[in-house]
């Protein structure tokens, strides 16, 4: 190896280090600028109050439901059992722990406190996060199934299947998701629940109308992704499979779809990440997902900056995790 060949990789390495250093410097400048901007606003930051929106300990009071006298207070394991006897009636109350506020012989009126105990509860943001994950996961699964079958129908030679798929795709992609959510809840939801009420059946919760609107919306985009992936495979693949005696459906499942899956994985990941963010629109039909929970927390706490920053970070964690998982799948499929 000549001296010139030895110097070239070293120059390339120095250039990469320079650009990496510039990136770190730019990141520090941006973060520093944001911090400086926050110090210039007339706002009191209360980050210490954020943890209670994930988990907090609540004091639960046990109240008397009848008028009467406390006749017995006994320990049962770690709990305390209080018996109250009234006129021809008696009630017993189990209080976790031993924080009892009455004594034997005390007279109680309805609503008087008998005892209290500490109970850990999930905060508003954590509840909203779990609902967002639940809704998005179910909508993604349904969207994949719907999009797969619609994409296959889109490339079918059957006019009924093909035209039906085109109609569904163009109708859903041509209208805003917010309008679809409102129509699902206020129009279709009202009709469906009224019919169920007439039949004496339980009504469908609003959560499921939100899930269906997201799934149907995602299914239309997945269908186009599947269609493009199938058509990107050379026609010779299908012809070779048919020449070996495979049926068209078997060749599609065994030959075409596995190859198409590798190509459609990145756009599918992008669609599902968008779906998670689009779930924030479900707040318009009173589904307490993450964005709606944050909005309610801001209303009660008057901490808009902290809570919206935390909300954005929580969405980022979900989408970044999904992105990393898809990259892992891409590496596995590339090795296969």
UniProtKB/TrEMBL annotation:
Keywords: Amino-acid transport, Cell membrane, Membrane, Transmembrane, Transmembrane helix, Transport. The chain crosses the membrane at residues 21-38, 129-156, 177-201, 207-226, 307-329. Pfam families: BPD_transp_1 (PF00528). InterPro entries: AA_ABC_transptr_permease_3TM, ArtM/GltK/GlnP/TcyL/YhdX-like, MetI-like, MetI-like_sf. Part of the binding-protein-dependent transport system for glutamine; probably responsible for the translocation of the substrate across the membrane. Belongs to the binding-protein-dependent transport system permease family. HisMQ subfamily. This is ABC transporter permease subunit.
